Amino acid sequence: MKALHCPPRSVEEVIRIGRRVDGKVRPLRIKLRLLEAKTEVLKRAKLLKENENFKRVFIQLDLTLNQQKVDKVLRDKLGEMRAQGETEAKIAKL
């Protein structure tokens, strides 16, 4: 959280997800106390790519199963559009 300039006191809970499997990295679920902290972390998430230690770290929202399905449909549609040569296509959720 230090790389994202998020104060430690804003973190409420950190949990490893999934079972331990040799050679596989398990994701973390981090629960933040304030909505503002969550917003700031998500805004700064793209900055992790610039830090050599965090190039392979990704931050995503914890979505419900229904939200995950909707996102999958949108990503698939975007992939089809890009395969057809549409280079300016983006996903926008309203």
Keywords:
94 residues, alpha+beta, two-stranded antiparallel sheet, 2 helices, 31% helix, 12% strand, globular
End-to-end Cα distance: 28 Å
Class per helix and strand makeup:
alpha+beta
Could you list the spans in which at least 5 consecutive residues all have pLDDT below 50? none
**Secondary-structure element pattern, one letter each:** EEHH
Please give the share of residues in helix: 25-40%
Strand order of the largest sheet: 1-2
* Number of distinct helices: 2
Average residue pLDDT: 85
Describe the structure.
- With 94 residues, the protein is of the alpha+beta class.
- It is 31% helix and 12% strand.
- It has helices at residues 35-44, 65-83, and strands at residues 11-16, 28-32.
- A two-stranded antiparallel ribbon has the order 1-2.
- The longest helix has 19 residues, at 65-83.
- It is globular, with a radius of gyration of 16 Å.
At a glance:
By secondary structure, the protein is α+β, with helices and mostly antiparallel strands. The protein has two domains: 2-60, no CATH class; 63-94. It contains two helices and two strands; from the N terminus they run E-E-H-H.
Topology:
Blueprint: E1 11-16, E2 28-32, H1 35-44, H2 65-83
Antiparallel strand pairs: 1-2
